[in-house]
Every structure is written in structure tokens, then in C-alpha cells.
Amino acid sequence: MGRPFGTRRDRSPLLEIVVPAYNEADRLPEGLGVLCDKLAGLQVRAEVIVVDNASTDGTGEIVRFWRGPVPVRLVRCERRGKGAAVRAGLLETRAPYVGFMDADMATDLAALDEAIVLLREGRPVVVGSRRHGRSVVQGYALPLRRLGAIAFNRAVRDLVGGIADTQCGFKFFDGPLARAAAADLRTDGFSFDVELLAHCVRRGASVTAIPVVWRDRPGSTFSVRRHSLQCLLDLTRIRLRAGFRLPAVPAAPALPVVPVRAMFADSKADPVVLDNGLPSTPTAQSG
Predict the structure, then answer these.
(1) Distance CA 126, CA 145 (A)
(2) In its keyword annotation, does this UniProt entry include Transferase (predicted)?
(3) Cα 37 from Cα 151, distance rounded (Å)
(4) Chain-centroid distance, C-alpha 241
(5) What are residue 282's phi and psi, to 5 degrees?
(6) Under 8 Å CB-to-CB from 20, ≥6 apart: which residues?
(7) pTM here?
(8) CA dist., res. 193 & res. 189, Å (int)
(9) What is the C-alpha to C-alpha distance for residues 202 and 182, in angstroms, rounded to an integer?
(10) What's the whole-number average pLDDT of the chain?
(11) Which residues pair with 153 in a beta bridge?
């Protein structure tokens, strides 16, 4: 069993979410609003860490003056690259459970419910997968980008626990595990997810993929033509640093989505066994 989700006496967060942001002044206010509203609806103390990745458009000012239903704090990362920003953010966390997601909130936050349930049950790494059989993907139709993603993920499955989508910007972890893996992270660019997951797998952690609703958002800084060569170089370095090939490990089976509106307060209720045999805490009845 994982750690119980309850209210700590010292009021420190139980869940911290990192949002890397490079020149996100236009999209960040909406994204932060959606995320904070979602977190406020969960009975678990949460905080958001926005990592300003050397922005030049006022991203940091938006965070500095942000007022919302959950705490949001700013971390400045002068080293450019999404990997560098996520690393800086994860190393700033202190919570038992942590994660990161993209500023555009391309992944529907309904997936956060299931991610928290799995973390609570003791799953050390939970990742959103656009290639999950129950995922809904909208707008991801560019043939070159789709083919590139398939080839990329097939090339790294042995490093990341067998999951089919390493690049979805929606990942959650046991806190100490994430901080240890982030401390070893050396990839600054878009391939950082592979190295981060590989560090978790090498520490004996299983990776659980869950379905997501994902909508392509305009404004992504990733370009197949501009970044493919760098990604290839990064993957080569990751393999060299790993020093060996790990055997492919099947991803843990995905659980059905479970609503968790009021399940995180301390409870003595008997556990409910889901169809796949894993225990879960009873959910609040909708009404």
C-alpha cells in the first residue's frame, strides 16, 4: 500500500505539480486557472511549481502575481531546455507525490483522478499514454510527426519499462524516486522524458500507463525538422550513459478511471476490490 492521502498537521503539500514554461505568457493564465481549479476540487493539499525557463515575455510576472485557490510558486531556470526546466522543478519539490505537465494543458485533467488513485495504491510511476487503447487523441494528425513518434518510442521501449508513449507531458511519481531520478538527469532537450523514466526503471520502479484525452494545442516549440537530429543524439548519449540495455518490461495494466472527488480524506472504510483485483478506496457517490 502507498502512503495515505490526508491532511498533514504542518500543512505542507502532499502533491506538487511542476509546469515548465518558456515564453508562455499567452497560454499560461488559462492553463494555471484550469489546473488550480482542478486541484482545489480534490481533498488533498496540493501546490503548483511553475519553472520559468529563461522566458523573455513576462511569463515570470504572471506567476509572481498569480492569485488562485491553490498555492503557485515560481522557480527560475536559466538553463534552456524543457528537460532542464523539469529537472529544476522536481528538485524543488518536497511532497510525497509529484508530477509534471505541460503549460498548455493538452492532456485533459480528468486523468489526474486516476493518476492519484494509482499513486495512493503504491504505483511509483504513472504516465499518460496517447497510445493507450482507451485514449482519445484529437488533432495529432501530421503524418511526419505521428510516424516519428512511433519510431522514437519503439527505439526506447527497452529503457523505459515497455511503455508505448514516453513523450506525453503528463507524468507522476513517488516523490523521493522522482527527486533521485531528476538529480541524475543530464538531458536538457525534448528527449529528457526517456532518461528520467530510465533512471526510475533502473531503480526497480514499474511504469503504469493510463489513458488520456489529449488535444493538440497551437504554439508547441517542438519541430520534427529542427529537433529530430538533436533527439537522436540525446538518445545515443542516454544509451551510452546507461551502459547496458535493459530487457523490455511490459507496462503495468491500466486501471479503469475512478472518480475521486472526496476520497482523499482519512477514512476507515473497507477497501473495494476493482475488477482487476487491485484494492482501492471507496469513491463518493455522485448525486
Answers:
(1) 24
(2) yes
(3) 37
(4) 23
(5) -55, 145
(6) 51, 53, 82, 85, 86, 89, 100, 102, 103
(7) 0.77
(8) 9
(9) 13
(10) 81
(11) none
CB 170 within 8 A of CB 101: yes
Asked if 164 contacts 197 with a C-beta cutoff of 8 angstroms, the reply is no
Q: Give the E-state strand segments of the chain in sequence order.
A: 15-21, 46-52, 72-76, 97-101, 125-129, 136-138, 170-174, 207-211, 213-215, 272-273, 279-280
Over residues 135-191, the pLDDT tens digits come to 999 876 566 566 666 677 777 888 888 888 998 999 999 999 999 999 999 999 889
User: What is the C-alpha radius of gyration for the chain, rounded to an integer number of angstroms?
Assistant: 18
Q: How far apart, in whole angstroms, are the C-alpha atoms of residue 272 and residue 89?
A: 35
Question: Could you state, in order of their start, the residue ranges of all structural domains in the chain?
Answer: 15-247
Tell me which residues of the chain have a pLDDT lower than 50.
1, 6-8, 244-287
CB 121 within 8 A of CB 220: no
Q: Tell me the CATH number for domain 15-247.
A: 3.90.550.10
